[in-house]
Write a structure and sequence with these properties.
Elements lengths: L10 E3 L8 E12 L6 E11 L3 E3 L1 H9 L8 H16 L3 E11 L2 E10 L13
Antiparallel strand pairs: 1-4, 2-3, 3-5, 5-6
């Protein structure tokens, strides 16, 4: 197999570090295992962040997300673990991870976790007519 899951996240220098701009990614193929039953859980992850000095390299993110496939973990725990790992790797100005899990037992679960760098003040929202 040409690639394997990895827990290593690579980054690269933010090409416009002087500016606040949003980076949004959708990862529709997240899987982990239910820690109670061992059955697979499927989710779509939505990552949004304002980078500071470093951005996340996409292939390493894909391989990192793949590393959860055979791990038993609760939705709340895995969402916060992923956010903490991404924050540690990039030290962003702001980061939000939304995990939208597919139905399990008739219940859809969405977990939203956020991080904001101390002292960072977001730009005001501009509404155009």
């Amino acid at each position: 197999m040409p690639s394997q899951p990895s827990t290593t996240l690579e980054t690269f220098p933010n090409p416009a570090a002087e500016r606040d701009y949003a980076i949004r990614m959708t990862l529709p193929e997240f899987t982990c295992l239910c820690p109670k039953t061992g059955q697979p859980d499927f989710a779509t992850l939505e990552l949004e962040y304002v980078a500071d000095a470093r951005c996340i390299e996409l292939k390493s993110l894909k391989l990192y997300i793949w590393s959860f496939r055979d791990r038993g973990t609760f939705h709340e725990a895995v969402t916060n673990e992923i956010l903490s790992t991404l924050v540690a790797a990039t030290e962003p100005r702001y980061m939000k991870l939304t995990a939208r899990f597919n139905v399990r037992g008739g219940i859809y679960t969405t977990v939203v976790a956020t991080h904001q760098k101390p002292g960072w003040i977001p730009q005001p929202v501009v509404t155009l007519p």
